[in-house]
Amino acid sequence: MVNNISNMINTQLRFTGMASGLDTDYIIQQMMSIERLKVDRVKQDKQILEWKRDDYRSITNLLRGFMDEFFDILKPATNMRSSSTYYAYKVKSSNENIATAVTKGQVAMLEHTIEVTRLAEKAKMEAEKGKFGGVGLSLNSTIADIADVYDIDLTYDSSLGKNKLSLKVNGETIEITEDKKFSDLISAINNSDAGVKISYSSFLDQFFMESKDTGAVAEIDVTDDEETITADFFSALGFDVSQVVTGQDAEFVLDGQEATRNSNIFTIDGVTYTLTGTGEATITLTQDTDAIFNRIKNFIDKYNELIEKISGKVNEERPKSGGRYGSYYLPLTEDQKKAMTEDEIKKWEEQAKKGLLRNDSLLSNIVQRMRSVMGDVTEAGGLFSIGISTGNWREGAKLFIDEDKLRKAIEDNPDRVMEIFAKSSEISYSPDNTKELRDQRYKESGVIERLFDVLQDNIRTSRDKDGKKGFLLEKAGIVGDITEFKNTLVEQINDKELLIEDMTIKLYEKEESLYIKFAALEAALSRMNSQSAWLAQSFGGGRQ
Fold first, then answer.
1. Contact 441, 429 (CB under 8 A)
2. DSSP for residue 115
3. Buried b (16+ CB within 10 A) or exposed e, 22-38
4. 16, 522 in Cβ contact below 8 A?
5. Alpha helices of 376-434 — where are they, by DSSP H?
């Protein structure tokens, strides 16, 4: 609408100054310059709001990225909310040909003996040789060809208008039409939910079938079925279909206790074992202090980067452009841009975008709360007690590590380090928790859960009982969410847009009014000139 009005103003075709000789366009433009200045100021205000919105969204995305890296259960290697993050061990096996091990979290013991008497195995079947290629078939043979050779009856499917082969493997029905190849049947079986894999060796002219899983629960059942010709078909391929074949469990003695598992890979008391052979081995664990230290240091480093960026916005000075009154850099008007090069415009706008969030209360509160939760004492102690401090208040919420003290804390008592960081409350986070519940959750939580609450309060995409999302989203929104178009700053931007539209209409009306008045002046002067000419002619017309 505003652009349309501007076009109307700029494309009006007028003939002015014909009688008076005045430069009417210039005079009116000068008279309107003050009014246009008012519109330009509102446009500048709107641009500043848009820049502020973008700055807020940039901070929101930083916080979201930080949460994705350190608060995501799908990223166990960096999830600081998980207690297992604060435990790491170097594992050694006395005989890797029998068993190896790894750990993911706290363990009960640092040394284990394991005697493997049997490995877990898959259910397996081998067909008799010479039952396929020996009778003139190949993987490219059609199901119809195979049925003819083996004298197997196919079932006519009226909906398809052709015959089909129906089999049932481990209770799973597999159907394939007569025009498909045998290789298609193998793919259908292997990709089904039957849990088996069938393969063929052309060199041996022999089929093999095995379960996808190991253990006594794994089986291959291609026995007789009243609804299909399963047994006849697999018998023709050379398989013994007289009984169901099962796998076997792994059998072992761990620390003197007999046990079985349906897989050769299993976890007991925080240690994941992989059995590779039979015999006896000793598994020895030693705490990996470096690994734990590096996880914590990586988190602190990224946390400090985040704090520096937010604090940088809060403390950023708003530069002044100089001039008579030393005013701040403001967004350029269209007329100002026309008088500048692209490089000059870019440099000017870089300055104009600085300091827009200086001393911003919302961002200042985030920094203050982050400093508070990282500096407060938990039930297990404070971060400062294990060598991590918040430093001087002038440095915001930034953290500093005494590396020797932190390493010693990890070596002496990793359980306490874990509780200071990752202890969780039975009370879950909710924006609708009462003050009492929030206070109790805060008291019972480690610093990571407390920090999680701060982040959630500000960038939460779910709504509270009043329909509100996180503070930053309510303020400026994020792209891809409903708040992109519905937030405080967008409402203010829309208000400015409406005001600009209204002022532009009034600007056009006032300009038209001035042109009408000058047109009236021209008309009056034209009449006066005509009268003067008539009088001159009348009084001087009779002279010789």
1. yes
2. E
3. eebeeebeeebeeebee
4. yes
5. 403-412, 414-422
Degrees to nearest 5, angle at CA 381 with 378 and 387:
120
Separation CA 165–CA 174 (nearest Å)? 8
Distance, CA of 191 to CA of 194 (rounded, Å): 8
Separation of alpha carbons 421 and 400, rounded Å: 15
Report pLDDT for 510. Answer: 77
DSSP code per residue over 6-73: HHHHHH------TTT---HHHHHHHHHHHHHHHHHHHHHHHHHHHHHHHHHHHHHHHHHHHHHHHS-T
57 — phi, psi (to 5°)?
Answer: -65, -35
Kindly report, residue by residue over 22-70, the tens digit of the pLDDT: 556 666 666 666 778 888 899 999 999 999 999 999 999 999 999 999 9
Tell me how far CA of residue 4 lies from CA of 9, 360, 501, in angstroms: 9, 37, 10
In angstroms, the Cα distances linking 341 to 43, 331, 338, 346, 352 are 21, 15, 8, 9, 16
Nearest to 362 by CA among 262, 284, 449, 470: 470
Q: Hey, is 514 helix, strand or coil?
A: helix
| Terminal C-alpha separation, the chain | 66
| Amino acid 323: pLDDT | 56
What was the pLDDT predicted at 186? Answer: 97
Q: Is 451 exposed, middle or buried (0-12, 13-18, 19+ CB in 10 A)?
A: buried
- Residue 14: its pLDDT value, please? 52
| pTM summary value | 0.77
- Return the HEC string of 147-214: HHHHCCCCEEECCCCEEEEEEEECCEEEEEECCCEHHHHHHHHHCCCCCEEEEEECCCCEEEEEEEEE
- Among left, alpha and beta (phi > 0; psi -120 to 50; other), residue 171 is left
Strand order in the sheet with 155-157: 155-157, 162-169, 172-177
Q: Which residues of the chain have pLDDT under 50?
A: 5, 8-9, 11, 13, 15, 17-19, 324-325, 542-544
Strands 122-126 and 111-118, bridge-based pairing: unpaired
* Structure-token pair, residue 428: 């879950």
